Amino acid sequence: MAGKADIVNTVVGRVEGLSKKEATDAFDAIFDTIADLLRGGERVQITSFGSFSVSERAAREGRNPATGQRIQIAASRNPKFKPAKELKDSLSGR
After folding, report:
1. What is the model's pTM?
2. What is the DSSP string of 52-69?
3. What does the alpha-carbon distance between residue 68 and residue 5 come to, in Å, rounded to a whole number?
4. Is the separation of the CB atoms in 23 and 8 below 8 Å?
5. Helix or strand (DSSP H, E) at 79
6. How far apart are CA 43 and CA 86, in angstroms?
7. 40-94 confidence digits (pLDDT tens)
C-alpha cells in the first residue's frame, strides 16, 4: 500500500527541481482543498482521474444484529469517489 510519503517521494523524483517540502506542501494543499470543497457540498471533478462527491444518508431505524433490538441510525454524509473512464481503462490494460 502506498502512503503519502511514497507519493511525495515519487513526485519529487518526477519533477526536476522540486524539493520534498514543496511536494509535501502541494500534496497537503490539494487534498485540504478537495476536503474543503466537499464539506461545502461541492462536487470535485479531475479530468481523466475521477470525481469526488458527498453522499447523504437520511436517519433511519435499524436493528442490532446481536440482540434484535431496534436502534436509531443517525443521518450521515460520506465522501464518494467515482473513477473516470480513462482511469478504469488504464487499470484494465485497454
Report:
1. 0.80
2. EEEEEE--EEEE-TTT--
3. 45
4. yes
5. strand 76-83
6. 19
7. 999 999 999 999 999 999 999 999 999 999 999 999 999 999 999 999 999 987 6
